[in-house]
Amino acid sequence: MADEPIESLGGKTPLEYANTPVMDAISKKSELGMVHTIPDGMKPGSDTANLSVMGYDPKIYYSGRSPLEALSIGVSMKDTDIALRCNIVTLSEEDVPFWQRTIIDHSSSEISTEECAVLLKAVADQLANEEFQFYVGTSYRHCLIWNEGRVVELTQPHDVLGQVIDQYKPTTEVFAKMMELSYDILVNHPINIERKKKGLNPANCCWFWGAGTKPMLSSFEEKTGKKGVMISAVDLLKGIGVGAGMEVANVEGATGGLETNYEGKVEAALDALVNKDFDFAYIHVEAPDEMGHQGSVERKVKAIEYLDGRVIGPVIEGLEKAGEDFRLLVLPDHPTPIRLRTHTAQDVPYMLYDSTAPKAENWNYNEREAVETYVRVAQGHTLIDHLFEK
Q1: 7-63+218-388: which CATH architecture?
Q2: What pTM value is reported for the model?
Q3: Cα–Cα 20 to 30 A to 8, which of 67, 149, 191, 312?
Q4: For 147-172, what is the mean pLDDT?
Q5: Rounded (10°) CA dihedral 359, 365, 366, 370
């Protein structure tokens, strides 16, 4: 959600520009500040950043992105396994050698899980063997398990959108070969022919990245004393929840896109907090990040407005109606600036509201005003301690 000032928005960030009456109102009763969620020297990603927000120091607990997603999918990794993310992306289809193609879209027009599962099966039918096994995830995000593998350096596709892929060719020959073969398998698949007829980007190539070893997270409840539930459409977040021993809610219609089931996420959170014996709900909304990757100012603003009106507002209303005392922490995991269409490691603004001790301030929740408070949490994994402190 965090971003930079954008000229077309009058020099405001999407968060400043968006119509967010709920956050504007609650911010005046809240603590505002900035938090550094990406430890120095680590790559800015949803993996390291969300671990940090959850209270896990990435320098201690991070073992790679894809292993966390494998936990969510239900893959039982051996100690000798390596998990990799297998995106099904859109490459250009002009008449050039494969490695001279351009990566157009890391999400293949936010392809549905149902369609992508068929495409992944077509790839697995030809490429899977005792060494490599494919597993279906969500939308374009899938998993490859490499038996007796090793951690290798591979490029994130959303970091190189619009670029020729040759300079990012895997140095591990087996992955370069599988990418080429997957393109041959998928480029003329009936699903992709139909997608192009509809004006959608074809999901025509596997892109491997995010290699890592079996994760070892400590129990969230033992660590914090709080019983928590994870609510997200994204396998990475679900995997963190599984690894931390949290309940993981499966919300029907939660896609990770702009038109996700916001109301279902709210319902799951309120049910856990009001009707069951949960102390903590982590509600993750992927849409602002996805719209940042797409480079769409309009859709990113809309995602923030949906977060305000369809998530934060109803959560507050539901807790107040139930007569619950509560604390509410709102923040992005990392910036995804429209200008760059990928993640950065800059600080992000946070807002912390305590219903039992409302403040009386004049500020709104956004990057500019959060910086001006001069409150900065230098180690992101300590912010959750502040949320839970007596």
Answers
A1: 3-Layer(aba) Sandwich (3.40)
A2: 0.82
A3: 312
A4: 94
A5: 10
